[in-house]
Each structure stands twice: as structure tokens, then as C-alpha cells.
Write the C-alpha cells for this entry.
Amino acid sequence: MTHHNRRTFVRAAGAASALAALGLSGRAGAQGTTLDTVKIITGFPPGGTSDTLCRRVAENLRNGTYTKTALVENKAGAGGQIAVQSMKGAATDGSVLLQTPASMLMIYPHIYKKLSYDAFADVTAVSLACTFDFGFCVGPAVPEAIKTIPEFLAWCKANPEKANFGSPAAGSVPHFIGVLLGKAAGIELKHVAYRGTQPAIQDMVGGQVQAVSGPVGEFTQQVAAGKARYLGVSGATQSRFAPGVPTFAEQGYKDLVFSEWFGFYAPGGTPDAVVQRANTALRAALAAKDVVDGLAVMGLESTSSTPAELTKLLKESYDRWGPIVKQIGFTADS
């Protein structure tokens, strides 16, 4: 994510209630009666971060004029691709919304030779949902004297057989962060791909893998228990979810500034008036205290935007990741 947009989007989220008070939610009347049912699709299973976000938002959508009922449909599989693909041909009346992490749209087109959807034509941006940074942690297999990223990389250089890290998935932002850190130090960090961050953290705590790169909120419990320690975080500024932990940039890696985001999308071709109505409803839901507080527990910043801001952010992120993927040389078939 281009980090300079974060404050703008946070301010936008706070303004959602004011927009509703001005009557912008009255667009519902202009588009017809309140929808009977809205379906929010996520490409990940129940209980995970994406699913939890969807369910919290759905609860708040039911309280307004947008819809009488809001349901969450889990279309898990293929790393989130099935959910995005399901938007092709879906109803464009605002009754079907997709919530997806950015990677499916900004990175997947660069790593998959054959993708079943077009990241720009098959979805229509509605609003950001949240933003988050990544953390890089080590476990008991790394000497306690190592407290920083440069120290860890120097240790890996001296112990190449131990130079590895885990991530939640091959082709994910955390995967690429680890690779780029190794490249910056002139060493190869062996990547170990997992199905999710928690299995990787469990192996790190157990000493099977030296380090893990993943969303910053995923490490909170193990760090608090003294079983893991942060070496750095990926944002433009230090994270409130990892107090006192320096950023990669602060440790000398100026180009390694990465955040990611979840967004809400309508099917491609959805009329502007319908998109604006959904945007107003979603921004109000994302500004609700229970949503803001619930996401914070998972290390996520509840964040909304206009459709145009999300469209611009996606294009900027897509353009940024193309050269990075090419530099790394990763494809989904490799």
C-alpha cells in the first residue's frame, strides 16, 4: 500500500457519521426501497481475519437503511481467487459485495500466468475496509542477543544453514518482504510457505523455523508471552500494535515500507449511484465503535475511503508491485 494515504483514509472513516447526518444515505430512496438481503463474499474460511471483519460490518449494515439482512458467504479456496472470480456476472444492484485483501488484486495478476478474473474490469471499488502493517519476528532458535534486523541478517550470513523464515503463503507480501530483506543484505533467506501465519508462528516458537514475516497483529499473543520477539515492522511509522519496535526504514532499509489493506468491491459494471449508496453504508459501518475496537484487537486499523480513492490506491499498488515481483523472479508456478 502507498503509505501516504493512511491518514486521509482514517479521517474519511471518522466523517462517515457526518455524511449520513447530511442525508447522503437518503440515496437509498433514490435507488428504490431498502434491499431485502445483502451478501458479503469473502475468499477465506469462517473465524479468520477477513471473515471476522465481514461479520462485524454485516451486523452494522443491518442497522441502517441499506439492507434488512446482511449475510456473509465464505467462498474459500485458491488463495482468495474463487471469491473474486464469483463477482463476474453477479448482480449489480448493491446486493452482492466482495471483501478481499489487496494481494488478490495488486499482486496475483503479476504472479499468475492465467488468472480467472481481471483485477480492474471484474470488480468495482467501493471503499477501503482496514489497513495493517507487517512484523518480522524471531523465536528461540535465534540467540537472544539479536535484537534488530541487521543483527539477524548478519547472523544468517554467518550461519547460512539457519537462514530461513516462514510466511503465511508463497506469493504474499510477507513472503516478498523476507526475500527483499535478504537481498538487501546480499544473502538468501530460505522461504518456508505455510497455510496461514499462525502455523508458521507455532513452528517458530517450536524452533523449527528461525523467523516469521506476517501481519503485525498475528504475533501479539506469543510476543506478550515472551516466546517471540519483534525485530522490525514494515510501515512508514512505528505500529501502535508493536510499541517501540523500529520500522525497517529506521533500521536502514528505506525502500522496504509496506502496508496492506482490505477493501470492499461491487461487481464490475455496477452503476455509480449504486456504488455511492453502498459506500455511504459501508463507511458508516466501518466507523462504528464495535467495528473499530474489534479490528484493533486483530492489529487492524478500521479505514474507509471514497470509491475513487480506493481505485487510485489499487492502481498505484498494482504498478508498484509489478517491478518488485519481476526483481524477485517469483511466479505462482515456481
User: Anything to note?
Assistant: The domain at 133-251 is CATH 3.40.190.10 (D-Maltodextrin-Binding Protein; domain 2).
